[in-house]
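Appendix B.2, paired examples.
Example (i):
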Amino acid sequence: MIYLDVNVLFVCSRNKWRSRTAEDLFKDSNVHNVRSAGTAPVARIKISEKLLSWAEIIFVMEKRHREQLKSRFPLILDEKEVIVLDIPDEYGYMDDELVELLKASVSRYLEL
């Protein structure tokens, strides 16, 4: 399913490399509103109820991120589409391979 004109949230652990890369990669979209956050206490931007409520579709980098969100915010997550991208924490910010992985993974769901 391709989502159009939606609020998109990318989530990883620290919001320094993967989800931040995704936000910066897709933030200039004329079709979607894009933000990012992290699940860890040391995250650059910490995940919050407000961010999750804002999001219409949530992309997490790993299954453990989805489980953390479901555990911490069960009522909000019941109504949200959460997609696991299966992108491991082995890339730096804007790494070429990470950019290609994100584009390939997200293009199944969003018009880029």
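Example (ii):
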Amino acid sequence: MVEKEKTALILVDVINSFFEPGQPNYYAGVENVLEPMRALLKTARESGTIVVHAVEKHRPEFHDFEWRKLPIHHLENAHDAAFFDDFRPEGPRETIIFKRRFSAFFATDLALFLHEQKVTRVVIAGVKTNVCIRATAQDAFASGFEPVVPREATNSNRPHLAEASLEDIDRYMGRVVPLGDALGMLA
């Protein structure tokens, strides 16, 4: 007998740094993912689906290996690392995972948490498709989850890399689906 898929929503880096104009990682067009992500979040909240807010945070007084490639960013309690607009966690079915690398799974307890909740599929939305979304989808797959990426709920300032990443996710790791399909999985 095949068990019904239990799905969780993972929102990746929905923080001021990417979505507030003038912040270090903001790029033109990023706002196009806001309404699709709001629809995903609303549906998940209404159905009682687990919502994971995976956000990058770094310790302000300590060196971080990531800074060899990137400028210092997303420090604890800094404005750029705060949740954007109406994407703050609410209620008992939402949790926060702090990550220090691109993937929400790498060096966090996300896989353990989701396995304990009997989750088998994760809908992944946020930014950037070719960096954090791809890394999270790859590690979701490696951790035994089916990653699903709603096409309208992610993008990048490098569209050609975003498209290549979506192709790889769909071909090798999971599925890239229209927003409506993802909403149905969360309902």
